[in-house]
Amino acid sequence: MSAPKAPEGVPFAINPETDPELAEEGRLLFAGEVDFLLSAPELKHLPPADRVEICFAGRSNVGKSSLINALTGRKALARASNTPGRTQALNFFALGERMMMVDLPGYGFADAPKPLVEAWQRTLKGYLAGRSTLRRVFLLIDGRHGPKEVDHEIMDLLDRSAVPFQVVLTKADKNKAAEMRKVEERTKAALARHAAAFPEILTTSSEKFEGLERVRAAAASLFRD
Fold first, then answer.
1. What is the per-residue DSSP string for 2-59?
2. How many CA atoms are closer than 13 Å to the CA of 48, on its beta-carbon side?
3. Mean pLDDT over all residues of the chain?
4. How do residues 120-168 score in pLDDT, each as one tens digit?
5. DSSP element (H, E) containing 159
6. What is the pTM of this model?
7. 147 Cβ contact partners less than 8 Å away, ≥ 6 residues apart
8. Using CA of residue 21, residue 209, residue 78, residue 125, what is the dihedral sign?
9. Which segments constitute the EngB-type G domain (predicted)?
10. Residue 39: CA atoms inside 13 Å, Cβ hemisphere, count?
11. pLDDT, position 13
């Protein structure tokens, strides 16, 4: 089966050049106070929707915690929220008074009992579909492999909910340049199926601190919209 082609007018740029002023705004946003607020295992535990909100989603072991820690310059910020009892919860962090950052548990890894998995899926779908202040989902995809079917399931949900999402390819340092370009092209083609996809794809390496400024700038850009 051939991969779908990106529609005309949607080029899905890879790592577009970042405006220096916006890059500095992003640096300041993530370099300021970052405080863990709470873990919400159910929708009734969500904090007030009182500021711009972003969230990070991705399959298990995609490198989400590593990216969050690298973005904020904290070595164990994301891990601190993943203590026993919080592994199936939405973890909220405050970036000063301006933004909330949400760390979603990894999806596509169902070792938990089925009723627990189903309850978590309901919470995830309820949050993504109904959070009024959620401005963008940063959807992390393993740069060694590209999108999987389970990634498309989340993208389909975001399409239906009209929630913009931006793909961030992680672990970019693990590929040779030629293979990385192939993954990027496959990702572009895959995103052509999704109306809510933001037309810029970012590549990152938390280990080598590559691409972080673009993710920070993308978050800061939401204050200009």
1. PPPPPPTT---EESPPPPHHHHHHHHHHHHS-EEEEEEESSGGGPPP--SEEEEEEEB
2. 3
3. 87
4. 778 888 898 889 999 999 999 999 999 998 899 889 989 998 999 999 9
5. helix 149-161
6. 0.89
7. 141, 155, 167, 186, 187, 190, 191
8. positive
9. 50-225
10. 15
11. 94
The domain segmentation of the chain, as residue ranges, is 20-223
Q: Are 120 and 88 in contact (CB under 8 A)?
A: yes
Specify the length of the chain in residues: 225
Within its chain, how far is the Cα of 71 from the centroid? 12
Question: Around Cβ 43, how many Cβ atoms within 10 Å?
Answer: 15
pLDDT digits (tens, 9 = 90+) for 78-129: 664 444 434 578 999 999 999 999 998 887 655 566 777 777 778 888 898 8
- For domain 20-223, give the fold: Rossmann fold (3.40.50)
40, 92 in Cβ contact below 8 A?
yes
